[in-house]
Amino acid sequence: MSTTRLTTAQALVKFLGAQYVEFDGNQERFVKGIFTIFGHGNVLGLGQALEEDTGGMEVFQGRNEQGMANAAIAFAKQKHRKQIMACTSSVGPGSANMITSAATATANNIPVLLLPGDVFATRQPDPVLQQIEHTHNLSISTNDSFRAVSKYWDRISRPEQLMSAMLNAMRVLTNVAETGAVTIALPQDVQAEAWDFPQSFFEKRIHRIERRLPSPESVQDAVKLIQLKKKPLLIFGGGVRYSEAADELVKFAETFHIPFGETQAGKSGVESTHPMNLGGIGVTGNSAANTIAKEADLIIGVGTRFTDFTTASKQMFGHADILTINVSEFHASKLDAVKVVADVKVGLEAIGSALGDYRSAYENEIEDAKQGWQDEMKRLYGITYGDDFTPEITDHFEDKLLEYKEVLGTELTQTGVLGVFNEMVDDNAIVVGAAGSLPGDLQRMWLSKKRNTYHMEYGYSCMGYEIAGALGAKIAEPDREVYAMTGDGSYLMLHTELVTSLQEGKKINVVLFDNSGFGCINNLQMANGMGSFGTEFRRKNPETGKMNGPVMTIDFARVAEGYGVKTYSVRTMEELRVAVIDSKKQSVSTLIDIKVLPKTMTHGYDSWWHVGVAEVSEKESIQTAFESKETNLEKARAY
Ligand SMILES: Cc1ncc(C[n+]2csc(CCOP(=O)(O)OP(=O)(O)O)c2C)c(N)n1
Ligand SMILES: O=C1C[C@@H](O)[C@H](O)[C@@H](O)C1=O
Ligand SMILES: [Mg+2]
């Protein structure tokens, strides 16, 4: 057996450089690059290996381990999971910072390879700097926390373990039904330890992403069910995008005259303008999709995980039968569905060819629902502040709006800004988002004029993904404008990969909607009987000890200017227009700091979200909210 003597870290890098995927006959290198933040836990092992030979991987330097890993997730998501990034961190806090990202990747079924440094396998120097000592179990380190949020987890305590660990890592990363975060913990001493690795370990490996075929029986079940129904509705999720199945979905919808609604992960799989596309569905859905969903007698879930936001906590289509087409048996089995476990493209093809001359019984309902939503969109775009102004989110704190208008110096409404912005960005530009009120507004209102232009992380809805995610999307699509759509809360939580974008010369545009608060959570608490508590950004009042002092303002544009970002302060529509036009001319990253009035985002359209309302309270409004929750729960499916 021919062998090569390398350190564990050198062998790992060499192995990663030899991994390829093949999908529909196209081959691509699997690991595009590696994000690094070096510390004592990885610099002399993996750092040394990369300095010597990167194995063809591009090396990036992150600013925060969560940020860099979020960028890695966004890269893989934008690449439809056909190419990934690895991330290496030091031991302890560096690795702990990646745990949130591991969870984000796993919740969204997006592959990412995390390589945190670990404490010494020999234990000789224990406790090494940043080691937690568990008196009941010395084998536990910070990295054991990744077990709960990874699809595959391993620790390399001896160099030769690398081989089985990495083959399994690749198995999971390239498995469309099981992918997510893969964590390979690398003890500092083992990274640098040498071993005679068999040459075969480094040979080029092609991981074929196969399209799983449905069983003929399951196709027959699906056909029988559809034929019994008059008003089916397709709901498509991220699976349609990852399987490159959009054309097949459109063909199916057109042939059988079945409309479709889109989830956050699915949106922009098909253009918003398609006559059968009702747009966003569920809690953050619009009136067109939600109205049709309520009337549907069959829901066909195509590549969707059916989260609570999609099903409106299982109330939206409480009485319809459910059919699923999903490559994951787990997701296909949800809602007690009739299931076709298959790649969604071949699943749709198989059902489509067996469905004969079926046609739904829809007459004008689809056009009417779409028209109703278009009229509503026009209204939302046109909302302006003025005398007797009533915000979209009403009965919360109209009396405070004047204060916000004066402190933020703005009369802009969030829906109005989105309307203008949507019209102005290039058709092929990518919008990236994750948390706050914007995902709701975007899923409802954003018109995706081209495919794969909407990039929303709403499986974990992780604040701080937006800017890092924009960087990842930009690395995946360097020739397109990428916009990070973020609230002030998300921006403050994590935005420092903006600096990485400057370092890399990868221009991103941050579109910051500053309403000085955790706006959507303020809406949520007040809609459920609470007061405004801990969600507005107000100074602490020293007399009361409460956060009910003056509204805070931050000049985000000025701060980002200090980084070297081209910035714009926007308080009027005219300033917005100038900023969007000028930002397109820039080659560096830009930030548009838009002050918007709170409560001017969209509200829900005929949907319910199950949240934990207090069963006991002195407050009548809470009691009412609790009763309303109980009533709604009765209308929802139990499982
Ligand atoms: C990491 C993380 N922490 C907490 C939350 C809960 N959360 C969701 S939205 C939100 C506030 C978002 O505020 P902002 O970004 O300003 O958006 P807005 O709702 O004001 O538009 C919070 C705290 C979350 N989604 N992610
Ligand atoms: O708790 C939440 C409420 C949602 O409105 C928001 O979009 C999401 O980020 C979240 O975490
Ligand atoms: Mg906010």
From TrEMBL:
Family: Belongs to the TPP enzyme family.
UniProt domain Thiamine pyrophosphate enzyme N-terminal TPP-binding: residue ranges: 31-132
Residues reported in the UniProt entry to bind thiamine diphosphate: 65
Cofactor binding, note field: Binds 1 Mg(2+) ion per subunit. Binds 1 thiamine pyrophosphate per subunit.
Stretch list, region Thiamine pyrophosphate binding: 437-517
Domain Thiamine pyrophosphate enzyme TPP-binding positions: 435-594
EC assignment: 3.7.1.22
GO molecular function, one term: 3D-(3,5/4)-trihydroxycyclohexane-1,2-dione hydrolase activity
Function: Involved in the cleavage of the C1-C2 bond of 3D-(3,5/4)-trihydroxycyclohexane-1,2-dione (THcHDO) to yield 5-deoxy-glucuronate (5DG).
HAMAP family linked: IolD (MF_01669)
Cofactor: Mg(2+); thiamine diphosphate
Classification of source organism: Bacteria, Bacillati, Bacillota, Bacilli, Bacillales
Thiamine pyrophosphate enzyme central domain residues: 219-350
InterPro entries attached to this UniProt entry: DHS-like_NAD/FAD-binding_dom (IPR029035), Myo_inos_IolD (IPR030817), THcHDO_hydrolase_firmi (IPR023757), THDP-binding (IPR029061), Thiamin_PyroP_enz_cen_dom (IPR012000), Thiamin_PyroP_enz_TPP-bd_dom (IPR012001), TPP-bd_CS (IPR000399), TPP_enz (IPR045229)
Keywords: Hydrolase, Magnesium, Metal-binding, NAD, Thiamine pyrophosphate
The protein's name: 3D-(3,5/4)-trihydroxycyclohexane-1,2-dione hydrolase
Catalytic reaction annotation: 3D-3,5/4-trihydroxycyclohexane-1,2-dione + H2O = 5-deoxy-D-glucuronate + H(+)
Binding site for Mg(2+): 488, 515
Pathway: Polyol metabolism; myo-inositol degradation into acetyl-CoA; acetyl-CoA from myo-inositol: step 3/7
A Pfam family: TPP_enzyme_M
